[in-house]
Amino acid sequence: MEEINKELFEKVVKIAQSRGFVYNSSSIYGGLRSSYDYGPLGAVLKKNIAENWWKSLYSHSELKIYPIDTAIIQSTSVWKASGHLSEFSDDLVECKICNSRFRADLLDTVSCECDNPEFTEPKKFNLMFSTNIGPTNDENSNVYLRPETAQGIFINFENVQRTMRAKLPFGIANIGKSFRNEITPGQFIFRTREFEQMEIEFFCKLEDSSKWFEFWKEARMQWYLNLGISQDYLRFREHSQNELAHYAKKTVDIEFLYPWGWGELEGIADRGIFDIEAHQNASGKDISYFDTEENIKIVPNVIEPAAGLTRTLFALLCATYKEDNVNNETRNFFTFNFNIAPIQIGILPLSKKENLIKLANEINNLLLVKYRTELDVTQSIGKRYRRQDEIGTPFCITIDFESLEDGKVTIRDRDTMQQQRVSIEKLLNFFDKD
Ligand code: GAP
């Protein structure tokens, strides 16, 4: 078991911010608290994680998953029916001395700066972000930003079922931004007010729901392992009855060992028939499923694996950050898998001499058709290696004067730092094996 490591947090945040993964949003105006922008490396890393998630949904032959991409702003009726307007709230307490406000259940991890804080009784605080559409600014134009991508799936259940001729069991997957007016955002991108989710609603018959719940628990755990997060950082934790969300019959979280301790990475919930039934009742429309085998209409059961994309990115940074000692200096690196790394191959000519740069450009042109490469000609080779290590580049190719003679280059492995000479014509295949 890895030890809880508070220093890790500062190190990861520092590299993420200084190397182009994550920037404080609106920084030229002093920043906006808990709002972040993803830089060139972070944007690619996020995209790679999302693509990996989509790919994993199509890798089980027995599964049928339909992708969907739904609106952030939906009818307010959706949020009334789903229970979010009445139930989606956290307990808020206020310090009577400084008036700072906190989420009651997080008082262990975040606290007021007063010496002897005294808190009010908890009161409900709804997390929905509201805004207005159109030129008027009244009750009728009031709408909400979605707090989860899941409802976009439920309100399209009938559309997908009908237009795709879908047969149970099947899933619908949605990915995108969600918004929650969190009382206590923080810990970098772990908890923000604007974040990205990756959600699957898996529709099945009631009698199969336990089987699918177990299936998704294992499949989602395996996904994090395949992504490159080691088992030491992951565990399951079942919710007690009193912490279940208003829609859930049962929930098991996949937890991650963050630098401050265990916390939620993904929730896998049995939502029963709650949502489809709620939308059916509220809309007055029949959105049930016609079971052609039994010749009856049924409201399917739902198993929901709900993951956070931005939170996964943060967990991946923490889990893959490593240090070792090279020539009495600390070397920092992320052990990103080859398919996830923002830059897969660094191309480093040993000198800026014209013929070496020319060959480096030719090699870059050869490789960039298939891989994410970066040609770097500045500074000493040692510094360039360190920079590529620090952004988690799995391989670096150095091109030296001998390369001009023998048509070979040196490939250095990030994790072992071992080097091997490989002929340029074999380069494309060399990286293919990963
Ligand atoms: N549809 C169910 C649902 O939204 P959730 O547990 O509230 O469930 C699912 O959210 C995932 O979304 C969480 O496990 C987490 O990874 C991510 N998430 C939730 N709130 C977040 C926030 N404020 N900032 C970043 N990620 C968040």
Can you tell me about this structure?
The protein is α+β, with helices and mostly antiparallel strands and 434 residues long. The protein has two domains: 2-73 and 130-318, BirA Bifunctional Protein, domain 2; 343-432, Anticodon-binding domain (Rossmann fold, 3-Layer(aba) Sandwich). Helices cover 30% and strands 30% of the residues. Strands 3-10-11-17-14-13-12 form a seven-stranded mixed β-sheet. A five-stranded mixed β-sheet has the order 21-20-22-23-24, with helices on both faces. A three-stranded antiparallel β-sheet has the order 4-9-8. Helix 3 packs across helix 8. The radius of gyration is 25 Å and the shape is globular. The mean pLDDT is 94.
Topology:
Layout: H1 6-18, E1 22-24, E2 36-38, H2 40-57, E3 65-68, E4 73-74, H3 76-82, H4 84-87, E5 89-94, E6 101-103, E7 123-126, E8 129-132, E9 142-145, H5 150-154, H6 157-163, E10 170-179, E11 194-204, H7 209-227, E12 234-238, E13 250-258, E14 261-272, H8 274-283, E15 289-291, E16 296-298, E17 301-308, H9 309-320, E18 321-326, E19 329-334, E20 345-349, H10 354-367, E21 373-375, H11 381-390, E22 395-399, H12 401-406, E23 408-413, E24 419-423, H13 427-432
Parallel strand pairs: 3-10, 20-21, 20-22
Antiparallel strand pairs: 1-2, 4-9, 5-6, 5-7, 8-9, 10-11, 11-17, 12-13, 13-14, 14-17, 15-16, 18-19, 22-23, 23-24
Glycyl-adenosine-5'-phosphate binds at residues 148, 150, 180, 182, 191-192, 195, 197, 199, 264-267, 304, 306-308, 310-311.
